[in-house]
Amino acid sequence: MICPQAMSHQKSDGMSYAPKGQTRAVCGPGEFRFGAMGLDHGHIYGQCNGLIEAGGELALVFDPDPVKVTKFCQTYPGVKVARSEAEVLEDRSLKLITSANIPCERGPLGLRAMDHGKDYLADKPPFTSLAQLDDARRKVAETGRIFGSYYAERLHVEAAVYAGQLIQQGAIGRVVQVIGLGPHRLNAPSRPAWFWEPEKCGGILVDIGSHQFEQALFYTGATSATVLHSKVGNYNCPEHPDFQDFGDATLVTDNGATFYCRVDWFTPQGLGCWGDGRTIIIGTDGYIELRKYLDVARDKTSDHVYLVDHKGEHHFAVHGQVGFPYFGQLIRDCLDRTETAMPQRHTFLAIELALKAQAQAMVVGAKTKRYTARGQ
Hints:
Elements: E1 33-37, H1 43-53, E2 57-62, H2 66-75, E3 80-81, H3 85-89, E4 94-99, H4 103-115, E5 119-123, H5 130-143, E6 147-150, H6 152-155, H7 158-168, E7 175-183, H8 198-201, H9 204-207, H10 209-220, E8 225-234, E9 246-253, E10 258-264, E11 278-283, E12 286-291, E13 304-309, E14 312-317, H11 325-336, H12 344-359, E15 362-365
């Protein structure tokens, strides 16, 4: 059961944004028990919401911070509080562990979960170095477990899900370019210390850029891509000289499509949500634009899809109409040992591209230090 306080998601702050959808159980009661560990980022609530709505049972939670645990238990009454990480890892009834701990700690926790026979769902970014990615690839091959990543800007946005369905139906022909815009509101006073340290969050192209790289691969149907150019900068945070508040990148995929993304922390206070996330998908027979979280100065609701094709101009307001199939698919993958929610190769390739773009980025703007992810 999810308490009423969790029913409305907080659109002003991306760190506490936790979408909710309809309950569409894909398993029986108690068939898919899972645990939550690492409550450092508010995305843990979105991850748990999605799994619960798909029929999962949130059984255990652990975090060393009792304040975070108390808040979590208020949102999910009935969840048992574990006394240690080991208690969660060693509970044989759990099928999966989900986590939104500090980004640099997500990969290592995933290895421990897989060593204990559990599948794993990490918040994005799942890794902050190529070395961590290599470790996870080896562990997946060794154990046969699933290492998932919560790329929420596609998986937990109905407009993005609907766009994928339109493309699969051939609505715009062959996709030739994707443009992803991922602005975020900084909300500096609410940010924890690790947020400002690229060694812990991976840098802007890893932290929030990984969302964009995943969407590029999905919408183009690519199985590999090359980073052509990338930039990072610090324009407006002089008190945190190592922090990056701007980043962009350009890719070309193995099937000939191109991709450009821009991510930043410049969302002004006047906007009615934490960021005006948009995606533009250009095809040979039309194009799609997603206005994910609101339609600026026109409509405060989320999930607007605009389609222009040979027949005309179309607007689809899909909030509450599409749902979030990823979570049910993931649960069935864990139970059936299938691969329908997201191919493991795709999960890892998205973050690999983000890590490479971060590592080779040109530094622009003010006094931003180049940050090369550890292990590269």
